[in-house]
What we know:
Layout: E1 4-8, H1 19-29, E2 32-39, H2 53-72, E3 81-87, H3 90-100, E4 105-109, H4 123-132, E5 135-139, E6 157-161, H5 166-169, H6 172-182, E7 185-193, H7 205-232, E8 239-247, H8 250-260, E9 265-269, H9 283-291, E10 296-299, H10 311-318
Parallel strand pairs: 1-2, 1-4, 2-3, 4-5, 6-7, 6-9, 7-8, 9-10
Antiparallel strand pairs: 5-10
Helix pairs in contact: 1-6, 3-4, 8-9
Amino acid sequence: MFNHILVPLDGSTLAECVIPHARIVAEALGARITLLHVLERSHSPDLNHTINPLDWHIRKTEAQTYLDRMAASLVDSVPDVCNVILEGHAAEGVIDYAHHNNVDLITLSSHGRSGLSGWNVSSVVQKIILRSYISTFIIRAYKSTTGERGGEVTYKKILIALDCSQRAESALPIAISLSRHQGARLLLAHVVSRPEMPRHLPRSREDTDLAEKLMGRNYSEAEHYLAQLESQLSSAEISIQTFLQIGSSAAATLDDLVESENVHLVVLSAHGYNSVEKWPYGSVAVNFIAYGATPLLIMQDIPFERSLCTKAESAARERPGH
């Protein structure tokens, strides 16, 4: 579960869309919130460009006033709220603070001060997601949340994707807690993928029969799994609905379900049954980050200590400044 929620803010109204969502999670779990603002130097091509101390002090004072105002909007429902101002690059500052202050969840607006773009998340958000190895909550700044009224947010339907694995189930406790807190219906969704059978020529009857047999067995196992899970959760005091579907792409099928059922929040584990630990996210999570349009909470199941350094990171450390 989450005890410490980090909310990076850059002073823009787009970034502020995360506030009511962070409040819900904090209320549901009794977590504390840290509001973080990173003061960045202006990117000037002039190598001799220096910072005016007075201008810098004014910017810092304005940032503190801004964070105080944001914190005041939360204290009635979240008693433990604090502010932090850092200096440096935004993504690096957020990641470094999170790693050194026991942050369990980073709540991010898809876009901020740089404005909306055709990309589903901004470059700063993408950097934080890929390098932090911490659970993240992405709010789509370009889309008003269904159920949002006057700055308040309600989740009526919460979907969690499950694939019979314990890794996918790692996100279940938070989904249950949020469903209970919001009085929301929890949708347990499983997609039985069609077997991949690459062929230069059309499938033979034997190939088709084999694929149907395998898919039938997987469907039967998933059906039993969801029924058993629904029974186990019968005492959780929440409304539960199961969805078992067949599709060639789990991510695409789940996304269609999110749209058809008007889901307000998607909860995922970063990895599932077939995922490896070479990358921070499995294919389903990556697709929802890149293409989803609904608030997305991803439970990261790989701790930072076990993360692998990419070749780009290694090169940057060996040749800083190049």
